[in-house]
Amino acid sequence: DVKVTQSSRYLVKRTGEKVFLECVQDMDHENMFWYRQDPGLGLRLIYFSYDVKMKEKGDIPEGYSVSREKKERFSLILESASTNQTSMYLCASSLSGGTVINQPQHFGDGTRLSIL
Amino acid sequence: SQQGEEDPQALSIQEGENATMNCSYKTSINNLQWYRQNSGRGLVHLILIRSNEREKHSGRLRVTLDTSKKSSSLLITASRAADTASYFCATDSLGGSNYKLTFGKGTLLTVNP
Known about the structure:
The complex is a heterodimer of chains A (116) and B (113). Helices cover 0% and strands 55% of the residues of chain A. With 116 residues, chain A is mostly beta strands. In chain A, a hairpin with a 2-residue loop joins strand 5 and strand 6. The mean pLDDT of chain A is 92. In chain B, 0% of the residues lie in helices and 55% in strands. Chain B has strands at residues 4-7, 10-14, 19-25, 31-37, 43-50, 55-58, 61-66, 71-76, 85-91, 102-103, 107-112. In chain B, the strands form 2 sheets. In chain B, strands 2, 4, 5, 9, 10 and 11 form a 6-stranded mixed sheet that branches. Chain B is globular, with a radius of gyration of 13 Å. The model of chain B has no long low-confidence stretch (mean pLDDT 91). The A-B interface holds A 4, 31, 40-43, 45, 48, 50, 56, 58-59, 90, 92, 99-102, 104-110 and B 2, 30-31, 33, 35, 40-45, 48, 50, 88, 92, 97-101, 103-106.
């Protein structure tokens, strides 16, 4: 089974801090995604990466950056955390083959991030 | 605007009953996917149905797709307490981004023992 592991289940940080969320997948997937999930808003795509060092902005990239130095690891960075970034963050991965959207995505269990 | 929207927002049934959830979307699609999310966990992929397919089965799950009505339904037969979860549909957009899925807000299914 595909395993997507997010480094922390719960994280509490302070406003203005630089925050790193880490995600590792063990199935050699080319594609990796970062979403945030908020009540009433559903899942929204922050960033997508289709290869090492390659990235595409999603719907809400402002205030975030990403890093993919190795195929299995995709990091989300909050440059200067703000309270409106308090949320559940979900990482996902998928195979390539055809188009990305034709592949099922495999999710980690999420990081619940609170910014105080 | 939201591409996929589930209906109802919440559904409560007894164990053994069938559960039906619906998803409507606005623009033409290549495929539609259904996911399940248990409380406090990540999403789990259930089924992918392509735009040229009308029905697909996986165990106790049956998914239908009506592209003329821009809608899909997920049927869970003989439900179990373990089926209690939120269920999401996710759609792409024909001719749009080749990597972006749009998720609905989900249907919260509660199966009472």
